[in-house]
Amino acid sequence: GEHAALARELASVSEERDALRQELLRREAEQREAEARAVVSAVMSELLDQVVQQDQVVQQAALDAAERAAREEGAAEARAAAEAGEAAGEAEAGQAEAGQPPPLPGEL
Fold it and tell me: Are 108 and 87 in contact, with CB atoms under 8 Å apart?
């Protein structure tokens, strides 16, 4: 009887130990999963920050290029207007030398 009771108690203790071991393993797995999720979250956050920074750099470069193009276009238009003005002035001077009246706007 006493031997059987000790065997039952040993079996019970063994089952409890196994259950505690399983619970410990489950908690360790949950902890590792939580740590892995935290790492993934931190990496994703860093990558997102880099994408946002790169997007800002690209947007600024596009704005700079557009401003540069607008300045260059304005400069080209100013040169063209200056050249047209010079040509008109030369034409007027040539006509004045020839004794002709200056041309009306649009006759150039």
Answer: yes
Is 105 a residue whose pLDDT tops 70? no
**21 CB-contact burial (10 Å; exposed 0-12 / middle 13-18 / buried 19+):** exposed
Q: How far apart are CA 33 and CA 28, in angstroms?
A: 9
Question: In sequence order, which ranges of the chain are alpha helices (DSSP H)?
Answer: 2-98
- The pLDDT value recorded for residue 90 is 73
Query: For residue 107, which of 90, 86, 91 has the smallest C-alpha distance?
Result: 91
Residue 36 CA to residue 7 CA, distance in Å, equals 43
Q: What is the pTM of this model?
A: 0.49
Tokens encoding 48: 């997102």
Q: How do residues 39-75 score in pLDDT, each as one tens digit?
A: 999 999 999 999 999 999 999 999 999 999 999 988 8
Cα end-to-end distance, the chain, whole Å: 128
